[in-house]
């Protein structure tokens, strides 16, 4: 694309998408010839589908040049929506190969400065110091409840609002569509109850055998109370979701299809868009559990077409908190369980009960900033490399459950070691300095489907702060068991 055409193209088509946070990192622009063409500040709040094609978009913020992807996916300011004042710079120069510096990333985590390799991300990730600092700063500088006529209360109100904006940008939705809660399970129990108040006996709910129980039991309880029917969508032998079975099980009584974006046991991803389409074709809601997927890639509820989605920031480098997205027109029709004087707007707020954990919202903001500073492209590429390394290095004595390559999965691996219980293997790995899990991790149905008993399987989860050395060390330790 010719450089001189760009301002026109930008004016017509570049509508930044808040969730385009591709490959932002500190990277010298080098010999490019940047051209400032706009100010993101003026574009704050706009959303759309178009992206530039065939050019590199570089964003400069303060003195730190950042760049987005090349080619068909050329993207916009990864920080859009949060630091709207940064100018867009367009360059036609070739992209330099960007190296991901895992040691620089790890230096941001005090928690990682110990001789323990954390493969327990699926149970909760470590948090960088900036998240810890944000939480303690809140207590020092802003601690108060909302709605008080004084400074710290106003600061807290601003923080809550900012957290909604950040969560909206993180999930690809409006800030009004955000509900904060204690964790995913608590939100799920509240929202399933609120959503189904008008459903009738005999109405049906589809859940899947790939789900964590927190996306199943809330429905079982609602079904118990209201005489609804819960049906389980099967998984295939390779642990992928059986969409034909899903289609077969949809009926004109189906009210919701609840499913995971990725399995917290075997790492399998699902075809979220397709599931949402199938649900909508049957006039049912598409209800996604993105808890496990959270640290592994960008979430985009608008692009995915889901009606409701819940995730947990403690799985993506933030504090213990839950965040839900609900389509605004849907939430407006649900009657919330709340105290009478509680605010009715924004609509997501109606489903929050009592005082929010303000300090954790401060930590949440810092966690999203942290992810933005690394960029999903870097995170995905690093995890894929380490995931392949793990899969390729698995010793003969290991039985892996789930997909054998990094296609259609995240780097979460369930396995057993010949001649040894999962508990014993995990305990010995823990003693050797490798933090892994064992059991069913509340993924009750998938473990049953795999024929695994109470002992379940060992689980090792890779996130972007893990290193190749840690993976090699884990593989050697497994071999030694
Ligand atoms: C896929 C999945 N869904 C739901 C949950 C429950 O999340 P929370 O602890 O936030 O209630 C988990 C927790 O491990 C999970 O992995």
List keywords for this structure.
disordered N terminus; Aspartate Aminotransferase, domain 1; 34% helix; 4-stranded antiparallel sheet; 481 residues; 7-stranded mixed sheet
Q: What Rg do the Cα atoms give? A: 23 Å
Instruction: Give the number of DSSP strands.
Output: 17
Q: Which of globular, elongated, flat, extended, rod-shaped describes the shape?
A: globular
The unreliable regions are 1-97
Q: Estimate percent helicity.
A: 25-40%
**N/C terminus separation:** 57 Å
Question: Could you walk me through the main structural features you see in this protein, from its secondary elements to its overall organization?
Answer:
With about 475 residues, this protein is of the alpha/beta class. Among the domains are: about 5-175 and about 370-375, no CATH class; about 380-480, Alpha-Beta Complex (Aspartate Aminotransferase, domain 1). It has helices at about 5-15, 40-45, 100-105, 130-140, 150-170, 185-195, 215-225, 245-250, 270-280, 300-305, 330, 360-375, 375-395, 420-430, 445-450, 470-480, and strands at about 35-40, 55-60, 65, 85-90, 115-120, 180, 205-210, 230-235, 255-260, 285-290, 310, 320-325, 400, 410-415, 435, 435-440, 455-460. A seven-stranded mixed beta sheet has the order 6-12-11-10-9-7-8, sandwiched between helices. The protein has a four-stranded antiparallel beta sheet with strand order 1-4-2-3. The N and C termini lie far apart (about 55 Å). Pyridoxal-5'-phosphate (PLP) binds near residues 184, 185, 212, 214 and 264.
């Amino acid at each position: 694309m010719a450089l001189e055409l760009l301002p026109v193209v930008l004016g017509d088509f570049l509508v930044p998408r808040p969730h385009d946070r591709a490959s932002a990192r500190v990277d010298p622009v080098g010999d490019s010839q940047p051209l400032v063409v706009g100010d993101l500040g003026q574009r704050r709040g706009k959303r759309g589908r178009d992206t530039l094609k065939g050019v590199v978009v570089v964003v400069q913020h303060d003195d730190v040049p950042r760049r987005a992807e090349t080619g068909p996916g050329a993207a916009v300011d990864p920080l859009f929506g949060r630091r709207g004042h940064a100018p867009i710079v367009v360059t036609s120069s070739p992209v330099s190969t960007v190296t991901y510096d895992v040691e620089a990333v790890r230096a941001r985590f005090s928690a990682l400065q110990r001789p323990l390799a954390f493969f327990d991300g699926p149970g909760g990730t470590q948090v960088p110091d900036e998240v810890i600092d944000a939480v303690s700063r809140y207590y020092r500088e802003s601690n108060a409840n909302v709605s008080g006529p004084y400074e710290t209360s106003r600061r807290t109100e601003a923080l809550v609002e900012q957290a909604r904006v950040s969560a909206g940008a993180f999930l690809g939705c409006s800030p009004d569509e955000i509900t904060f809660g204690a964790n995913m399970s608590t939100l799920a129990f509240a929202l399933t109850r609120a959503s189904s108040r008008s459903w009738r006996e005999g109405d049906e709910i589809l859940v899947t055998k790939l789900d964590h129980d927190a996306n199943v039991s809330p429905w079982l309880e609602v079904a118990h109370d209201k005489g609804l029917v819960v049906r389980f969508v099967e998984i295939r032998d390779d642990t992928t979701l059986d969409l034909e079975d899903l289609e077969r099980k949809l009926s004109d009584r189906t009210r919701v299809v609840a499913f995971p974006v990725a399995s917290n046991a075997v790492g399998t991803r699902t075809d979220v868009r397709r599931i949402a389409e199938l649900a909508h074709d049957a006039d049912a809601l598409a209800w996604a559990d993105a808890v496990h997927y959270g640290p592994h890639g960008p979430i985009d509820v608008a692009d995915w077409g889901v009606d409701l989605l819940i995730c947990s920031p403690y799985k993506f480098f933030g504090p213990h908190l839950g965040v839900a997205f609900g389509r605004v027109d849907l939430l407006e029709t649900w009657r919330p369980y709340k105290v009478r004087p509680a605010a009715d707007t924004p609509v997501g707020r109606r489903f929050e009960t009592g005082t929010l954990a303000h300090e954790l919202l401060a930590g949440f903001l810092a966690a999203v900033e942290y992810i933005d500073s690394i960029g999903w492209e870097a995170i995905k590429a690093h995890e894929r490399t380490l995931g392949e390394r793990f899969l390729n290095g698995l010793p003969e004595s290991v039985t892996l459950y789930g997909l054998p390559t990094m296609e259609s999965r995240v780097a979460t691996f369930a396995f057993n070691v010949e001649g040894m219980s999962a508990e014993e293997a995990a305990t010995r790995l823990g003693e050797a300095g490798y933090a892994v899990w064992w059991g069913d991790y509340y993924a009750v149905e998938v473990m049953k489907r795999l024929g695994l008993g109470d002992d379940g399987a060992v689980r090792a989860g890779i996130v972007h702060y893990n290193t190749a050395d840690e993976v090699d060390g884990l593989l050697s330790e497994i071999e030694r068991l």
